[in-house]
Amino acid sequence: MIRIFGTLATLWLILTGAAVAQDRPVVVELYTSQGCSSCPPADAYFLEKLSKRDDVIALALHVDYWDYIGWKDNFADPAYTARQQSYARAAGHRSVYTPQMIVNGQDHVVGTKPDKLEKLIRSHKAQSGDVDLTIERRGNRVAISARSAVTTPMIVHLVRYTPQESVSIKRGENAGKVLTYANIVDDWQTIGNWNGRSPLKMDARAKEDAPAVILIQRADGGPILAAAKID
Question: Is the pTM of this model over 0.85?
Fold first, then answer.
């Protein structure tokens, strides 16, 4: 593929429906739960602010470890709990909590501290990246291509999410509340491994009517090196 730069590249991307991580959107993962009384402010911030930003890919992952206190989170998945735990192990932390936000798979921040989160987002936006990623929707598939300036074990993830949904909480710490959530992850797949030694070219199945996110991340809970989204 011929690489096109500057305004011509932007025009080409618009015409083809492709998305490129040249502006390096920052990935923010919110670990939350419908059964967590401390989570609604973080959920609201996620809904009102982060999910609407073009420079951020906001992903809400609902964990299952609060289900025992009286309300089962219908968005929760043990795989998301395991992902949060892998971040904790990588950082040398002994426990996990909600609400927690992970920035680009690297920095951890309490979900009720938006000022600290904003500083981290600005810091990550200012960093140069080692991986150039381009994705393009082709019917019910997403074409993925990437080049890397580093050679290291990396994992390619496909993430899909529901943009918004409201839930009436009947029991537990949030009983009686109707809470609205944004960018609720409902499908997370590992679709490939890559070492960066040669250009990456692959595709993956993705519904035409649902947002799709591609993440390239270092293995074992490492940082996210590139990300791109198609709505």
Answer: yes
Contact 114, 43 (CB under 8 A): no
Classify the C-alpha dihedral 177-181-187-189 as positive or negative.
negative
Measure the CA–CA gap between 145 and 199, rounded to whole angstroms. 7
Half-sphere exposure of 78 (CA within 13 A, CB side): 0
pLDDT by residue, tens only, the chain of 231 residues: 333 333 333 343 444 444 444 468 999 999 999 999 999 999 999 999 999 999 999 999 999 999 999 999 999 999 999 999 999 999 999 999 999 999 999 999 999 999 999 999 999 999 988 999 999 999 889 999 999 999 999 999 999 999 999 999 999 999 999 999 999 999 999 999 999 999 999 999 987 778 999 999 999 878 999 999 998
First to last CA, the chain: 24
Residue 179, number of CB atoms within 10 A of its CB: 17
Structural tokens at position 203: 């595709």
H/E element, 138: strand 131-138
